[in-house]
Amino acid sequence: MDRRNEAITRSERKNDNAQLRYHGVHTCVCDDCRYVHYDMVDGIPNVYKVRREDHPEIHHEPFHNMTNVLKQNNKVNWAKQGFSKNLYKRVPTDVRSRYERYFNDEFWNLQWYEQDYRNNYKNEMALDMNLVPVYEELKFTGKGIRVAIIDDGIEYTHDDLKDNYDEEISINLNWNKKDPMPRYEDPTNSHGTRCAGEIAMAANNKKCGVGVAYNAKIGDYKRL
């Protein structure tokens, strides 16, 4: 992991914050460690980006000594050195999985994240969960597990959820009743149903996809 010559700092002192905002890019945060403020972190009050301009922009080793000096400054409440994070493309959609016919559900082949593409891309990062051996060898399918979601309700009558729906762990806390069916007059009330499907969609019913724990029981504490 490559470290950068910058740090994220937090200061609760209003006078210091006002000074940082007023002087902008070249305001010195800490004279003895020669960091300069060059930006604010959007959306997070009192948090700033600072940089050591006399150091290489990227370095392979962390600058513990300089970060510690920054932390000890009375203007700074918290500090952490920045680092570069590499992003990788996910597995191409045209790659074939050895488990593509394991379930007969309509969209199982699109659920690449539950399958195993490492057989095709041995030198690539493993971005899938490779769940089928867990089902086959360990016999873990969610059977005996009960999962309650706190969300905007679940459509428990859906063909892919109805057999795994657990009424005993479901409640509508908005109206103090058992029925957690979403209010579909608001089209955004579908998040809980999607989450329930990701967890406990039934397998081998030729509908939709397969939940990661397709034999688990699912319920909902409807709060939204």
Describe the structure.
The chain is extended and about 65 Å long. The protein is α+β, with helices and mostly antiparallel strands and 224 residues long. The chain is built from four helices and nine strands; from the N terminus they run βαββββαβαββαβ. β3 (35-40) and β4 (47-52) form a beta hairpin. The chain has helices spanning 14-23, 64-72, 132-136, 191-200; strands at 3-10, 28-30, 35-40, 47-52, 58-59, 78-83, 146-151, 171-172, 217-222. The protein folds into two domains: 16-83; 91-223, Peptidase S8/S53 domain (Rossmann fold, 3-Layer(aba) Sandwich), CATH 3.40.50.200. Residues 14-27 have low confidence and may be disordered. The two termini are 41 Å apart. 15% of the residues lie in helices and 20% in strands.
